[in-house]
Amino acid sequence: MATSPISLASVHVPLSRYLHEDQEELITPECKDLMSSLSRGKGWVLIHLYQYQGFWHTTRQLQGVLACQKMFQAQATDLILVSTPKSGTTWLKAMAFAIVNRNRYFCYDDHHPLLTNNPHELVPFLELKLYVDNNVPDFTNFVHPRLFSTHIPHISLPESIKDLKCKIVYLCRNPKDTLVSLWHFTNKLRPKTLEPLQIEEAFERFCGGVSLYGPFWDHVLGYWKESLQRPQSILFLKYEDIRDAPKVHLRKLAEFLGYPFSLEEEKEGVVEELLKLCSFDNLSNLEVNKVGKLSSGEECSSFFRKGEVGDWTHYLTSEMIEQLDMITTKMFKGSGLEF
Ligand code: A3P
């Protein structure tokens, strides 16, 4: 559809087949070989995570990362949305898609693709969709500029993205809300045969860096440092900042992506309309996001929970807050980054 008009539903292995670790037949010999040499940590959805190039991955994720590294050939005009999991990726995808495609799909349009498609289907993940499960994507029908997304840490990005200096929008969120959102999300995906993960365990693992694409702080720092060196190639955004000043950030995003709003559009209220289209209230109440499923098996509704800043106050104890703040202060010391 739209940016990536291909359907991968038929080649996708249902999520349920990954819910046990006897997934031997799904893992390539190359990945298996590598896994045997990697550190193993406790998982969130499944039992284990594997540490590759300093970051923690599920088996499926790892295989997708390896496939991207080996096969993905970027084009200089590609636009890449990168985020830490649960930082508002769904929101960013919706906004970027709506901005880039607004001449094809007017934001007031009753037939706008965002009204009938989850943003993850419109802006596909490289490692979790396009290259997942040994899939070889066909890019022939992609509309240019191609919009992709990924959670891959900077160090593990496919070389062509770095070499061609593709524009990257990076989104992160304060670690306390990220942790709470990740905890809720992973419990939704956890097989019924496993006990739900308690917040205390999630907290321990997150603080120890053993979380999906974690350590969280290293992920953020990797892109933060790059954004300081190459601000023309990497736009660094925080969820909270967008919530605070949505119009300012939507304009910034549009400008960075190469699709600034014209004076006429400003006068017509396109910025406001586009924000409304992509808002939590609008997207989370659409039929597709209430009852639909992604082709990879996740329920669309699992990507919309509360969409608030500061929900961590309801879940973390004062000791947890203190410890997490201490880690964040220590890890970001001298970087200029604050949450
Ligand atoms: P909460 O769990 O705190 O509610 P991701 O998209 O990276 O998976 O992140 C999911 C988080 O972003 C969830 O946070 C979700 O509710 C929130 N979210 C999803 N769509 C949003 C939107 N349009 N606006 C603001 N927040 C949104």
UniProtKB/TrEMBL annotation:
Write down the InterPro entries for this protein, in alphabetical order: P-loop_NTPase (IPR027417), Sulfotransferase_dom (IPR000863)
* Keyword vocabulary terms for this entry: Transferase
Limits of the Sulfotransferase domain: 77-336
Q: What is its EC number?
A: 2.8.2.-
Q: Which GO terms describe its molecular function?
A: sulfotransferase activity
Which N-terminal residues, if any, form the signal peptide? none
Q: Please state what class of enzyme this protein is.
A: transferase
The question of whether Kinase is a record keyword is answered with no
Highest taxon listed in the record's lineage: Eukaryota
Q: Which family does it belong to?
A: Belongs to the sulfotransferase 1 family.
**Name by which UniProt lists this protein:** Sulfotransferase
**Organism, as annotated:** Coptis chinensis
